[in-house]
Amino acid sequence: MSGTVDDRSGVAVAFDGIVKRFGAVEVLHGVSFSLEPGRVYGLLGENGAGKSTLMKILAGYEAPSAGSVHIDGEPVIFKSSRDAEAHGIVLIHQEFNLAEDLSVAGNIFLGHEKTKGWFLDERAMQAGAVTALRQVGLDIDPSTPVRRLIVAEKQLVEIAKAISRRARLLIMDEPTATLTPSEAARLFTLIARMREEGVTVIYISHKLDEVERITDEVIVMRDGRFVGRAPTPTITRHAMATMMVGREIADQFPTRLAVDESRGPAMRVSGMSVPGWAQDASFAVRPGEILGFAGLVGAGRTELFEGILGLRPASGAIELQGRAVKLGSLRDAAKHGLTYLSEDRKGKGLHVDFALGPNLTLMALERYAKPWLDPSAEKQALDRAVHEFGIRAGSLSVKASSLSGGNQQKLALAKVLHPEPKVVVLDEPTRGVDVGAKREIYFLIHRLAQQGLAVIVISSELIELIGLAHRVAVMRAGRIVATLSGDELTEEIMIAHATGTRHVAA
Amino acid sequence: MSQPDTNIAGNGATEPGPRRQQTGSWLSDRLGSFGPVLGLVVLCIAGTLLNGDFATFDNLTNVLTRTAFIGIIAVGMCFVIILGGIDLSVGSMAALIAGCVIMFINWASPALGSPLLAVLLGAGLAVVLGAAFGFIHGVLIAKGRIEPFIVTLGTLGIFRAYLTYFADGGALTLGNDLADLYAPVYYGSALGIPVPVWIFLLVALVGGLILNKTAFGRYVQAIGSNEAVARYAAVDVDRIKILTYMLLGICVGIATLLYVPRLGSASPTTGLLWELEAIASVIVGGAALKGGQGSIAGTVVGAILLSVISNILNLTSIISVYLNPAVQGFVIIIVAFLQKGRR
User: Fold this and answer.
1) What CATH topology corresponds to A249-337+421-506?
2) Which residues does chain A have within 8 Å of residue B206's beta carbon, measured at their own beta carbons?
């Protein structure tokens, strides 16, 4: 492969025993590895493996708790992302860091404005922006406000911004999560060209086919540790996945049990439309069944369920336990035996400043108020949940924020199951959770289904859906385009449906 | 290379980090709950040293009686602040309620032919009006989705303007015999303790019970801590918000029904800057301005602390009495700044 180094050479990076703690929780446990200039590295690992944190340290957004970063052989301490940029290191965020109301040129030069005397030199910035945009193959007027761009264009603006800052090491975190296949292909061409110019690229993605296609070498992290590296041509996708998970994929999941087909559906949704997000979605789930929902970011999965749960305006028919219901709010839904675990654990799932008990009982608090709250009953409920859900906490009086991601997630699960629903919707139930806790959550979901609960799992991790679900509904652009089961449950078929590269009469 | 060295040095340097942080938060937690009490004790000692009259029984009951109005409002305000809201209108609301109650009693006494009944109904009217005003606030904030700051800033102007209009720029005054009939509510005492102090105590106890021992209280804390999480946990957020502002309105009503017999009149300066004193009491009492946490006990201590400060200013001549609101203003800003440091 071309490791040629020209004038604008890439950056050599060495991580040396990087440790990162957030409060009492250690998320990186001494990571050491090095990167050569002018190569494209695939950084692999499950959610919660510590990839993003490590990259934030490299790009100056976080400081390591211990250990050091060496750039071109010199130890460096970045006080801010500006420091890192001065060394040519730029991180392109999963969520873009663009000021929506500023123009494209304004964004490209944000913080590095060109000036003439006391005033901004708009003309020079426009010209500079045009050059940078041409390099990424984006043909737009640099005075366009960023909010008018589509997602793929915003991404290219981010890259143009990096290029205009003479980036010598570019970190891309899940860059294709929101791109269509043709947009992604354009991005890959750009990455190849940058490598030729000697730029080092670190590419974080869950999509192993992309990693296989564009990287020179893969580096795998798991649970905050470096676990291995290999030149891309020498390693199969299966081997990558096994390295990420740390055991054979099959052992990560419980054995699937048959669903009792004779029982009527616990929930049936027909003709559900959420304006702007989902059209005419119909599906049903039986007691004891695990129904998966797959799709790209923006396919409308979360929004469909927000519509069903009364969080967004929506139309369509919902039946719970065979009775037609109208759900105006999550409160109505909970009353009818349907609860929802949000994908946004800290923003919508748990009160991180509250102790564990109040978090657990919040959804079923009426049960404990007669009319005065009964602390001992709450305490008993917590003891039971801690045991049943395997929540590990130093002490039961700590705040939820001091639990690890996996234990927070188990608490959040216990919370939405506390009102004893008949149907539960779990949105990204293992996001930001380490591999061990993931396995526990899979077995937990499995056990709940076995007890007769109807479970809907929305997930972006296809492996998870394949391992866990009886059937998987695939959404694309707001529609359920296929419902797969049995032998059809493969990554290839699901991706094909999700991206629309396969046309099957749905 | 000195890799191992840097490693050890790095570890050595950062190891105490979390531990130190923990002691830090422990200390500030303790300070958060004991700070106000400590401040009160120090002030009382200082007051005693500065002026012999401070530590007399008469002066202390006087301080507590004057604390009662603000203290009762502060209990309601504590709920609103824990909810993550604010109410700037309480002073104006008290003034308008006082005016309405005085007009009502003056009208009802001859109309009903029973001065006593008129006074009783007037006192009841204070609470009903408070609840109604609180309900309006709550609906505008919860259903109308307007910032509490804006809603109550608007009503701050509206309430006081209507009082001024009703009073025609002057004062509304209770008839002499009616004022005498109503007087014991403020000037009377039971077991040597003035009536307003008893009612303050009762309101605080009931408030503490509601906040800590009912599902409603838990919901208020949950919404203030993180509204989205509460909504996703199927809490009826709008209803709880409306009820919370009504609770504060009722507190304002109770405070006003105690205040009316004190002067027997209401004027455009009635209840001026009460909002400052009530909010300051809650914040001094350790509540987080961003919502989610706070305590009734702390609020009570905070209210007493503020009136002790003003009492000391009255008794001594260190700072002019005219600067009392400035002292409260400084206190609220300093405490808010310290809170920021604690996070």
Assistant:
1) Rossmann fold (3.40.50)
2) none
